[in-house]
Design goal:
By secondary structure, the chain is an alpha+beta fold. It is 26% helix and 9% strand.
């Protein structure tokens, strides 16, 4: 008998800190190809009703914004499970993609910071930390896990994204004029969802 319900296609990451004083780096993602140009170029503010409106000067002209970094990263990330044939895959049952750990470590650490994984398993956190120039300590009760982690740190195999390698121009929906304006302000564009697949 088939189970009723939705396909389980996500995992949840819990974020804990001992104190209210913790490091949290805001990461920015690219603008969606469907984002209106005025949303990128013009400043916004809240009106008396709390609604987001375009900011205007004393003459009623819309105020152009400063250079924007993109859209702050949301709490939903498109990082699929590792392809069963991926070179990165070790066969370890709870292995996560290095690209997932990269995202986490970029948010909560900077280069040179120390990352500790007391249940390192196949060593993905250590591989991620090394690739991002963080110091790291991996601990596991299993000798096999420690050996596997050490061999991964020697090889440093990290899956790549086909979409990033192919480029995103085929998903482009802006006119040449809009692209020229956005290029002049160094705006990020057109990579709303990055599908991580393996070669």
């Amino acid at each position: 008998m088939r189970k009723k319900g939705l396909l389980n296609a996500h995992q949840v990451i819990f974020f804990y800190s001992k104190t209210q004083d913790f490091k949290f780096n805001t990461l920015y993602t690219d603008y969606s190809a469907t984002t209106n140009l005025d949303q990128i170029l013009q400043d916004r503010e809240r009106n008396e009703n709390g609604k987001s409106v375009y900011k205007k000067d004393e003459n009623g002209n819309v105020v152009l914004g400063k250079e924007k970094k993109g859209v702050p990263l949301s709490d939903v990330w498109e990082i699929p499970y590792l392809n069963p044939k991926a070179k990165e895959r070790t066969g370890y049952p709870t292995q996560k993609p290095v690209l997932l750990l990269n995202q986490i470590l970029k948010i909560v650490t900077d280069e040179g910071d120390l990352v500790v994984d007391p249940f390192c398993g196949s060593g993905t956190t250590c591989v991620s930390a090394k690739s991002l120039k963080r110091q790291f300590i991996g601990i596991d009760i299993s000798k096999d896990a420690v050996e596997l982690a050490n061999s991964r740190l020697e090889e440093m195999v990290i899956s790549e994204s086909n979409l990033l390698n192919k480029g995103t121009n085929e998903y482009q929906e802006k006119t040449e004029k809009e692209l020229a304006i956005l290029q002049n302000i160094n705006a990020f564009l057109f990579k709303e969802i990055v599908e991580l697949t393996d070669f």
